[in-house]
TrEMBL record, chain A:
Organism: Paracoccus amoyensis
Name the UniProt record assigns to this protein: Ligase-associated DNA damage response exonuclease
Alphabetical list of NCBIfam families matching this protein: Xnuc_lig_assoc
EC number assigned by the record: 3.1.-.-
Keyword annotations of the record: Exonuclease, Hydrolase, Ligase, Nuclease
Keyword flag Electron transport: no
Cross-referenced InterPro entries: MBL (IPR050698), RibonucZ/Hydroxyglut_hydro (IPR036866), Xnuc_lig_assoc (IPR026360)
MF terms (GO), sorted A to Z: exonuclease activity; ligase activity; RNA endonuclease activity
UniProtKB/TrEMBL annotation, chain B:
Catalyzed chemical reaction(s): ATP + (deoxyribonucleotide)n-3'-hydroxyl + 5'-phospho-(deoxyribonucleotide)m = (deoxyribonucleotide)n+m + AMP + diphosphate
Matching Gene3D superfamilies: DNA ligase/mRNA capping enzyme, Nucleic acid-binding proteins
CDD domains: Adenylation_DNA_ligase_Bac1, OBF_DNA_ligase_Arch_LigB
EC numbers, comma separated: 6.5.1.1
Domain ATP-dependent DNA ligase family profile positions: 295-423
Protein name in the entry: DNA ligase (ATP)
Molecular functions (GO terms): ATP binding; DNA ligase (ATP) activity; metal ion binding
Keyword line: Cell cycle, Cell division, DNA damage, DNA recombination, DNA repair, Ligase, Magnesium, Metal-binding
GO biological process, one term: DNA repair
Annotated TM spans: none
UniProt xrefs under PROSITE patterns: DNA_LIGASE_A1, DNA_LIGASE_A3
Pfam assignment, any one: DNA_ligase_A_C
Length: 330, 516
């Protein structure tokens, strides 16, 4: 069976005919395999959802208990029609997984979803899975993206908090994954006091703590006066009246995009922190070298750069040009 | 250079003035001489180094990175120095003193410069690489005015901002005497002469607004398309400043030599051959040069057309009414052929002025200036005493054909638009526009581009020809560069015509009929 008969893009998402399932579909389908809990990958309304236990929990927290007709926990290799599928840690956020598809006849395909190779205190590290076809994201698929050590970025945060001791530091971080990682990094950087969190982070922070991840003392950033100097909030909160309770705040944003100044400027960020949950250029190229698949498929992001690199390296590659995933999923 | 790189980064992203001042003050207090002086000069644009050209930097990269990956990267990042700082493969993390980097750029010969820059980049980490390249290209863009830098200095000691401004133009980097003075030492006695004084600016006006005013209370003159300058001869010290206070004397030795008067005048810098004023393009060739060749001085002679006087023979005229200042200028001898007085226009009604404005005697006129007869010379942009009434832009309805990601602030958005007009049943490209739309419209255009791409050529996207843009422009020239044979001057998108089908866009013949 040819590779594109085993997996190909459809308007609903990546479809696997021999297994009759979709991966991270953007429209409701009868059977969905979900790599991780971010909203553009994990949507409500599917028939059967197969994902890691943590991803299923996260979907229930976000969409309510009835987010799917039926839940199935990924636990070891599983037969689905004429395929065997298995889930492997992706190192992106809590519960994130790569999905390996071994058809009865044909090449083995690994759909990595969103992934990251840098150690992350809030999730299990990426596990390299040998395969014939490696399906990779290319969110940061340009050689300018070489993300620094996140602890170095945290030292810029602590320096700013010392330079402006009277100004609250509001750091934008997406509610799932990034926020908890920033909190855990702040603890590693020696910030021991209470960190205030926006209401939208509460449930997901509670869930991380319940999963055994130490986030230290957290206080709600919902009172009229918030005394903690460090406040974590989803970026959308900065456009809402919630932000008006802070006097002269330093607005920061934790994202891999912050490596490019124009991006930080577009967001009106005063303290850009380059902290990413996605592979940067050295990571994605080294991963492809390490796995040495016979073919690379690129799902979404700045695929032109990675396509060119594959061409230069003599690696067969093609873009899937999937639609429906956020252009900037950080 | 680590502290300097940090400072640049913080300044670039810090919007609040006070926070910027604090960051700069703390840096200046914590940094030793001469590094802090060079940093200050770099920030205020007073550090005159051998400008490293974009071509040199591209050449360095071409040896190290695949050309296509480089161009995709540059396209995404939108800034050459930043692209190179990010792409440079090196593990260096040295804290090279700023004065060493400055010395390298000031002293290395042209032939040795590429290798010297590469060796320096190898020694530095990514954000220091960016700081070094910004230093080398002389373009800091951190949103810190020279005045703010002086305010930070004033916060460090006794001398006030006014004290510092009085002597600023007589100082040179690394400003050791200035820092000594601020720390309590003696005041640097030097050329406190020929200081720049903030200029008076005008506000736009239209005929409807003018009808509410009495024309007899105003004078009018042509608005020349050159560069507004302040030319000073203060007891023999001669300087030429741009309207933002940048000292551009070095680029215009011919005009400096012609300032044979004692005073400070406000006027338009032009290239003029005999009585014929040359286009802005000709003037542009004279800008930003550290030295000017004799051939350039002969082929592109600089001239000054005087509008107003702030000082004349020792007297401060700024509180006199405009008509009195004019009278003094009309009697004055500027002592040179390169300087003349801007003539007044003869009109008694606004309609007469409107008629003059639509048919100016020179193509280098971009409208008229209207000034109250009794106006004092005040700095800034007061509303009322001075108006600019520019020529109306021309417009066509064109079809959006291609889009490319923007650079600078717009990087990441599709903001460079190529548009075309009908020629028979074909659309031919007639120009490109980068602005004219709001941030909100930019997002909509960006979305349109992403959803209507039919082909890609590297960074360029070809689009479904269905969106009509109203494009405004200031003038039109015949051109071999565009397929259409015409080139627009200063084109911008004045409206997005979501409502108009592409078939109703204008034809090329309509545009060609507008060529003067």
């Amino acid at each position: 069976m040819r590779a594109d008969q085993i997996l190909h893009p459809t308007p609903e998402g990546l479809y696997c005919p021999p297994g009759d399932f979709y991966i991270d579909p953007v429209r409701p389908v009868h059977r969905a395999l979900i790599t991780h809990g971010h909203g553009d990958h994990a949507r409500a309304g599917h028939g059967v959802v197969l994902a890691t236990a943590q991803t299923l929990d996260i979907m229930a927290i976000r969409y309510g208990q009835d987010f799917a007709g039926q839940r199935q926990v990924a636990n070891g290799p599983l037969r689905i029609h004429d395929t065997t599928v298995s889930f492997h840690p992706a190192g992106h956020i809590l519960g994130s997984a790569q999905i390996a598809i071994q058809p009865d006849k044909g090449p083995k395909i690994v759909v990595s979803g969103d992934y990251c190779r840098r150690p992350n205190p809030v999730c299990a590290p990426f596990e390299p899975v040998p395969c014939d076809i490696f399906v990779t994201e290319a969110t940061f698929g340009l050689p300018v993206f070489c993300h620094p050590d996140p602890l170095q970025e945290m030292s810029r945060l602590t320096a700013s908090m010392a330079e402006f001791p009277d100004r609250p530091h509001l750091i934008g971080a997406y509610a799932l994954g990034k926020a908890q990682r920033v909190i855990a990094l702040a603890r590693q950087a020696g910030i021991d006091g209470p960190i205030a969190i926006h209401g939208a982070l509460q449930n997901l922070c509670d869930y991380h703590i319940a999963q055994g991840i130490d986030l230290g003392p957290l206080v709600p950033a919902t009172a009229d006066t918030v005394t903690a100097q460090l406040v974590i909030a989803p970026p959308s909160a900065f456009a809402s009246p919630w932000v008006q309770r802070f006097r002269d705040p330093v607005i920061g944003f934790a994202s891999g995009w912050m490596q490019v100044r124009a991006r930080a400027r577009q967001r009106g960020v005063e303290l850009p922190l380059i902290i990413s949950d996605h592979v940067d250029w050295p990571q994605v190229t080294n991963t492809i070298r390490e796995l040495s698949p016979s073919e690379v498929w690129i799902t979404h992001g700045t695929e032109d750069g990675l396509m060119r690199w594959c061409e230069l390296e003599g690696v067969a590659a093609r873009p899937l040009r999937l639609v429906g995933y956020e252009d900037e999923p950080e | 250079m680590k502290a300097f790189a940090n400072l640049l980064e913080r300044l670039a992203f810090t919007p609040a003035r006070n926070a910027k001042l604090q960051l700069l003050r703390h840096y200046l207090m914590a940094t030793p001489d001469p590094d802090r002086g060079y940093a200050l000069a770099a920030l205020t644009g007073d550090l005159k180094l051998r400008a490293v050209t974009p071509g040199l930097l591209r050449g360095l990269m071409a040896q190290r990175v695949d050309e296509q990956l480089f161009s995709l990267s540059y396209d995404f990042v939108g800034d050459l120095a930043e692209t190179i700082a990010l792409l440079w493969q090196a593990d260096g993390d040295e804290d090279v003193p700023l004065h060493q980097a400055v010395a390298l750029l000031a002293e290395t010969g042209k032939a040795g410069l590429p290798a010297a820059i590469a060796a320096m980049l190898d020694r530095l980490g990514s954000s220091q690489r960016l700081a070094f390249l910004k230093l080398a290209t002389g373009n800091m863009r951190v949103g810190l005015s020279a005045r703010m830098a002086r305010m930070a200095l004033a916060d460090m000691g006794q001398p006030t901002v006014a004290d510092i401004e009085e002597i600023w133009h007589g100082l040179t980097p690394p400003y050791q005497p200035l820092f000594d003075w601020i720390a309590g030492g003696p005041r640097p006695e030097n050329a406190a002469k020929a200081p720049f004084r903030p200029v008076m600016l005008s506000t736009p006006v239209d005929l409807d607004q003018l009808r509410g005013l009495d024309p007899s209370e105003y004078i009018a003159e042509w608005k020349w398309d050159g560069i507004r300058v302040q030319a000073i001869n203060d007891q023999g010290v001669r300087r030429l400043y741009s309207r933002t206070g940048e000292d551009i004397s070095a680029s215009f030795p011919d005009l400096i030599g012609a300032l044979n008067f004692d005073g400070a005048v406000d006027g338009e810098l032009l290239v003029r051959r005999g009585n014929e004023v040359a286009s802005f393009g000709d003037l542009q060739k004279r800008l930003g040069r550290k030295s000017v060749t004799r051939a350039m001085l002969e082929s592109h002679p600089a001239a000054l057309r005087v509008y107003d006087a702030m000082f004349w023979q020792g007297d401060d005229l700024r509180d006199l009414p405009l008509t009195q200042r004019r009278m003094l200028l009309e009697q004055a001898d500027f002592g040179s052929d390169g300087i003349d007085l801007s003539p007044l226009l003869d009109f008694t009604t606004w309609d007469e002025l409107a008629a003059l404005r639509t048919d100016p005697p020179s193509p280098v006129i971009e409208g008229v200036m209207i000034k109250r007869r009794d106006s004092r010379y005040v700095s800034g942009r007061p509303r009322g005493p001075w108006f600019k009434w520019k020529r109306d832009p021309m417009v066509v309805d064109a079809v959006l054909l291609y889009a490319q990601r923007g650079h600078g602030k717009r990087s990441g958005f599709y903001s460079d638009f190529t548009f075309g007009l009908w020629d028979g049943d074909q659309l031919v490209t007639v120009g490109k526009a980068y602005f004219g739309f709001t941030d909100e419209e930019l997002k909509e255009l960006d979305r349109f581009v992403r959803n209507n791409t039919i082909d890609r050529f590297g960074p360029v996207r070809a689009l479904q020809p269905k969106l009509v843009l109203e494009v405004a422009f200031e003038g039109l020239n015949a051109s071999g560069r565009h397929k259409s044979g015409v080139a627009m001057r200063f084109p911008r998108i004045s409206r997005i015509r979501w409502d108009k089908p592409a078939s109703e866009a204008d034809h090329l013949t309509t545009l060609k009929a507008m060529i003067p």
